[in-house]
Each structure stands twice: as structure tokens, then as C-alpha cells.
Amino acid sequence: MSKQLTRYAVTFIVLFALQVLILNNIRLGGYINPYIYILFIMLLPFEIPGWLLLILGFLTGLTMDAFAGTLGMHSSATLFIAFLRPYILSNISTHESAEKKGNPTLSTKDVGWFIKYTLLIVIAHHFILFYLEAFSFTHFFSTFLRVILSSIMTAFFIIISQFFVIRN
Questions:
Q1: Computed from CA positions of residues 39, 42, 48, 52, in that sequence, does the dihedral angle turn out positive or negative?
Q2: DSSP 3-state of 32
Q3: Domain count, the chain
Q4: Which of 4, 8, 120, 128 has the fewest beta carbons closer than 10 A?
Q5: What's the pTM?
Q6: Alpha carbon of residue 100 to chain centroid
């Protein structure tokens, strides 16, 4: 149990270091902002209790808010995907794979399943985050373009990171 806890703590620290030190400084044309820190929520075990998933989702977002100075926007978005995650997992998983223990990673699932899972979580997160940031539908299409482009870049980084983990 302590080995798993240590592994999740290291994952959390590494993802936040990547996010804060490198990825927060990438802004291609103001439309692409990759947020790889949500991978922490995505990689939590299938059998994690719902209350703990929500708490970890909120604390993950709160930590990002503290570093980014965004006053609850990341907390709201990560809490939303923590709430949505069990529904997404149950809808994209077959009955026999839903019974499986472990983590929803590329090494435990096939590539198509993991890409679908990643895209659904990332788009949900980015939609909430960017529309909370804009706090208006006045620039709906430019914000939507930002959601799509950032989601593609974030999903790309998440999937590539999984290939590095599998290889190692």
C-alpha cells in the first residue's frame, strides 16, 4: 500500500513540475495551452472510492490554482472531471473490462480505448476551464477553437507520456 502511495505522490510531483516549469510557459498563438497535470486524475485506480476521487480532483485543481493564480478555475475543472470519470469509464468499457482492477493506463488497455478515454476527459476539462476563464459566450467560437486545439495538444502529450512509461 505504501508503495502505491509513494508512486502516486511521485506521479503528482512530476506532473506538476512539468506543468508549472515547462508547459505553463507554452502558449502558441494564445490558443494552445497543454495541461498534462490532469493525467494524475486519469491514472487513479478503477476501484477508487468516489468520495476520494472527488477530494483528490479538488486538491489537484487547488494546487494548480495556487501555482497559476487562477482563483478556482482549475479546481472547478478538475472536480468536474473527477465527477465525470466513473461515468466515462463505465460507458467506454466493456462489461468484462469494467470488472478489472488496476489503473486505466495504456499498458492495461488497448490504444483505441485509451485515446477515447483521454479525449473525453481532456475535452471535458478544457471546456469547463476555458469557458470559466472567458466567463462569457461572447467569444464562443474563439474559445471553442482554444478548447479543441489545447485538447489535441494535451491528449498528444498524455498519450506520448504513456508510451514512455510503457517502454521503461
A1: positive
A2: strand
A3: 1
A4: 4
A5: 0.90
A6: 21
Please report the DSSP string for 67-101 in residue order: HHT-TTHHHHHHHHHHHHHHHHHHHHS-HHHHT--
Closest CA to 114 of 99, 84, 100, 93: 93
Please state the separation of Cα 4 from the chain's center in Å: 19
Instruction: Examine the pLDDT at 164 and tell me if it is beyond 90.
Output: no
| Cα angle for residues 138, 143, 147 (degrees, 5° grid) | 155
Range of the domain at 105: 2-167
d(CA 73, CA 86): 22
Residue 100 has pLDDT above 80, yes or no: no
Angle between helices 73-92 and 111-134 (to 10 degrees): 150
User: Using one digit for the tens of pLDDT, what is the confidence trace for 7-16?
Assistant: 899 999 999 9
